[in-house]
Design brief:
Strand order of the largest sheet: 3-10-4-9-7-5
GO molecular function: ATP binding
Protein name: Nucleotide-binding oligomerization domain-containing protein 2 isoform X1
Largest sheet: 6 strands, mixed
Number of strands: 17
Organism: Scomber scombrus (Atlantic mackerel)
Helix content: 40-55%
Strand content: 5-15%
Keywords: ATP-binding, Cell membrane, Cytoplasm, Immunity, Innate immunity, Leucine-rich repeat, Lipoprotein, Membrane, Nucleotide-binding, Palmitate, Repeat
Bound molecules: adenosine-5'-diphosphate
Radius of gyration: 29 Å
Distance between the termini: 44 Å
Low-confidence stretches: 104-108, 609-636
Mean pLDDT: 84
Shape: globular
GO biological process, one term: innate immune response
Structural class: alpha/beta
């Protein structure tokens, strides 16, 4: 099809793609490119880009113009649109046929004014880093008046718009002004390259103050609580980092420096790098390590200032703040010359780094509704954060944000520079962590030996938080014998017992009475955790503690730690050792308390059904937005984040209600109530599974019946595994009739492999199991062995499996009658 036809036929789609963000940026960048190519003349540009007119009207005007200009202009236009739109936004548009090369031709331009046009796109980018200096040069040389400057710097303009305004003004002033600005840009580029900044005394002082505060905040791991502060240097163990996008040549291991570095960049224009990983995979710790290395001048040397933020803490900021206030009040206060220091930050965005830990914990889900571009404008902190991540605010400042993967939707993804996945410890990482945790080599060797003997536990240790718990409880572990932990719930129960008995060793009760002895503490903390989850609350004030009867003695148990707060203006606040610990206590409360709503379990297992109903917060409702908000597309990503915590809690509830633990509750609550809760959970799991099976489409004739797992399927499997009751697994699997089970891109690591193998072994007929693009690894391979007899084929491409892992699979495969095929790609 001709390009002209493509423009005409796709008018609505192109219009939507260029306007849907509400920002004029895409249109302006397309115009820059068309001007550069000489496809538009200056007057045409001015007729399209009418200030104050609706964006849609401007884009329509451009569509009309390029269409009337003919085939060549349409080709350039489509090529420009393709380059400017993020991949996802341009996905629905056909660009085929547009093969124009929009790179500048390198022809020498006869005048500076012409250069301003032909290099407009790159000049806009360059000017953003030095706009104030360029204006000063233009004023000094008499080309600009102060009202020209004011017009350029109007706070409603984004930095790129300011750059364009400047170029437009310069053009109207003639050749000499154009020469002046080009000269300035060239000069400032070369001085930037030589890294010549003259730092004032006050700036250097501030830099020192900030880095010593960052160092103090990051040198200890807080999860070791009040009992023992573990220096990060002593315990930090390399975790596995991978690029989310499939870069064949970069599939090897990434270093910490690569998080901020150029490797794997998918969108050069974006500033935000996302580090994603499951709860407990070590996101905060990796960030903490980066902070520490920066503060010591070892890493991230190109950044003069690093501002670390915790989204959990930002939740408690009720005031509206400007970016300046956010930086100085939440990170580090300059003792003098605040304005000068902030101006330096504005003038040198590429020398500044912001980090935001735990985006999933922010109460408000990501939204691009409210635009703020001016760094001195006050706005609610979440709005500032969203504008920073999108690059509307502080363009050019690199931002690193961590989150659980579910909490980052397409709305934010389109603003990402790249995404790095955190995949927990490798087998050698587990080894290394245990050795660091236990200085005594004989103890470390014993712990490692017991892990090797219990492959389910070894699989769990792939997750750093579980590896820490297991190492922390080594005495219980080594003394466990037969009752050695198998499930995540077992591991958390082990640490519960460890902490409770650690605090009162003299009274320590033998046998199963330990829970009964501490039931009050467990219920108080459980209520706090439960109500916190319902209101997305992870930091608790004294009043919150009082409401749930949490006493000083309860705090001393070590499950709650003092919340670090760099601004230190607040009174004491507490948080759970880790968010998964909060989920565990919430689950204990649901299981042990008689005070929860009768429908709590039902709601917990079907969080998606909670949309649109308004119930009290202690039934997990505070976190779920009302249906009308949903319709407007607001808060969608926060629902997903909350669902993830509810799912973790539901997994623990399943585990706690397992037959294996019922004797533990025997003295603590009436067994009739407990039986009822068990029946409720079993019913929910069976219903959940049934829903998935119902969604399996009938196969096309001659093809195999295939199920592509929907989100939630792996979670249900994990819940069934936690219950450790083969009858439930058998019942669930007896209804699954497929030839092919597809679980690609499902975040399946070793922990999930253990659960899958446990449940799938009860399938009635052999299946093809497709696990491509997960993080099974060699540890996960071991976990899969028990279900190989029910697999006729196994797909494990892009799973970080080595020769040794494949050797084990093949050795097992040849013993299984049904097993026919294995597909894999070895990791280097
Ligand atoms: P996330 O932020 O992904 O939820 P955290 O960084 O809070 O996970 O990790 C949970 C716990 O796991 C930490 O408190 C620490 O004990 C342990 N941990 C995580 N990553 C590492 C690491 N790289 N080295 C040593 N311990 C780690």
């Amino acid at each position: 099809m001709f390009n002209r036809d493509l423009v005409l036929k796709q008018r609505a789609e192109i219009l939507h793609a260029l306007c849907s963000s509400g920002s004029t940026e895409h249109l302006e960048r397309v115009l820059d490119k068309l001007l550069s190519q000489g496809e538009l003349i200056w007057e045409e540009y001015q007729n399209i880009q009418v200030q104050g007119r609706a964006l849609y009207t401007n884009v329509r005007q451009l569509l009309d113009l390029v269409y009337t200009k003919g085939e060549d202009t349409c080709e350039f236009f489509l090529a420009a649109v393709k380059q400017v739109l993020p991949e996802a936004q341009g996905a629905g548009i056909t660009f085929s046929g547009c093969c124009s090369n929009l790179e500048k031709t390198g022809e020498s331009q006869s005048t500076s004014s012409q250069t301003l046009l032909t290099q407009r796109a790159s000049l806009v980018t360059k000017l953003q880093a030095c706009i104030d200096g360029a204006l000063e040069a233009l004023v000094e040389s008499g080309h600009f008046t102060s009202s020209d400057c004011d017009d350029v710097l109007l706070p409603i303009h984004t930095p790129s718009q300011q750059a364009r305004r400047l170029l437009d003004h310069v053009r109207s002033k003639g050749e000499s002004a154009a020469k002046c600005v080009l000269h300035y840009i060239q000069e400032s580029e070369s001085s930037l390259n030589q890294e010549k900044w003259t730092l004032s005394k006050e700036f250097s002082k501030y830099q020192k103050k900030l880095s010593s505060s960052v160092s103090a905040q990051s040198c200890f791991l807080s999860s070791y609580g009040r009992t023992s502060h573990m220096p990060l240097d002593e315990i930090y163990t390399e975790a596995q980092l991978e690029l989310a996008n499939d870069f064949a040549d970069l599939s090897g291991a990434l270093d910490l420096d690569d998080i901020v570095g150029a490797a794997g960049t998918v969108n050069d224009e974006a500033d935000t790098v996302l580090v994603s990983g499951e709860a407990g995979s070590g996101k905060s710790t990796v960030l903490q390590r980066l902070h520490l290395l920066w503060a010591r001048g070892v890493s991230l040397k190109g950044f003069l200032l690093l501002f670390p933020f915790s989204c959990r803490r930002l939740n408690s900021e009720q005031r509206e703040l400007s970016v300046q206030e956010l930086l100085f009040q939440h990170c580090c206060w300059p003792d003098k010359e605040q304005e000068e220091i902030f101006q330096f930050i504005l003038d040198h965005p590429h020398l500044i780094l912001f980090s935001f830990d735990g985006l999933d914990e922010l109460k408000q889900g990501f939204s691009d509704e409210h635009m703020v571009c001016c760094p001195t404008q006050r706005a609610p902190v979440n709005i500032l954060l969203f504008n920073l991540l999108q690059g509307f605010l502080m363009k050019g400042v690199r931002k690193v944000v961590t989150s659980r993967p579910e909490a980052v939707g397409p709305m934010l993804k389109k603003h990402l520079r790249k995404e790095v996945l955190l995949k927990g410890f490798s087998p050698s990482g587990i080894d290394c962590f245990v050795k660091k945790h236990h200085r005594d080599p004989t103890v470390a060797a014993k712990v490692l030996e017991s892990l090797q003997m219990n492959t389910a536990l070894l699989g769990l240790c792939h997750s750093p938080v579980l590896c820490w718990i297991v190492s922390q409880c080594h005495k219980e572990l080594l003394g466990c014998g037969e009752g050695s932990p198998q499930t995540i719930t077992d591991v958390y129960l082990m640490i519960l017992q460890h902490f409770l008995q650690h605090q009162s060793p003299l009274k320590s009760t033998m046998g199963l009475g330990w829970l009964q002895e501490h039931i009050k503490v467990v219920l108080h903390l459980g209520q706090l955790a439960f109500e916190g989850l319902g209101t997305s609350c992870y930091i608790f004030t004294d009043t919150d503690l009082e409401t749930c009867y949490v006493t000083e003695k309860d705090i001393c148990m070590g499950f709650l730690i003092l919340s670090k707060d760099m601004s230190s203006t607040h009174s004491k606040r507490y948080e759970f050792l880790h968010v998964t610990m909060q989920c565990f206590f919430a689950a204990l409360f649901i299981v042990l308390s008689n005070n929860t709503d009768r429908s709590t379990i039902h709601k917990l297992f079907e969080p998606q059904n909670m949309k649109g109903t308004r119930l009290s917060s202690n039934c997990f409702m505070g976190c779920i937005p009302s249906s009308d908000q949903q319709e407007q597309g607001l808060e969608g990503e926060s629902v997903i984040a909350e669902t993830s915590n509810l799912q973790i809690t539901a997994t623990f509830v399943s585990g706690l209600l397992s037959q294996r633990h019922r004797s533990l509750w025997f003295h603590c609550c009436p067994s009739a109530g407990m039986e009822k809760k068990v029946r409720q959970v079993v019913k929910c799991l069976s219903k959940g599974m049934h829903k998935h099976f119902k969604s399996i489409p009938q196969p096309v004739q001659g093809e195999k019946k295939s199920m592509h797992a929907m989100p939630g399927f792996v979670w249900l499997i994990k819940c069934i595994y936690e219950m450790q009751e083969c009858k439930i697994a058998k019942d669930a699997m007896s209804k699954l009739e497929v030839d092919h089970l597809k679980l690609t891109y499902c975040n399946i690591g070793p922990v999930e492999c253990t659960a899958l193998a446990y449940v799938l072994q009860y399938l009635r007929n052999p299946v093809g199991l497709q696990l491509d693009y997960n993080s099974v690894g060699d540890v996960g391979v071991e976990q899969l062995l028990p279900c190989m007899h029910i697999c006729n084929s196994l797909y494990l491409r892009n799973n970080n499996i080595t020769d040794e892992g494949i050797r084990k699979l093949i050795a097992k495969g040849i013993q299984c009658d049904n097993f026919q095929k294995i597909a894999y790609v070895l990791s280097r």
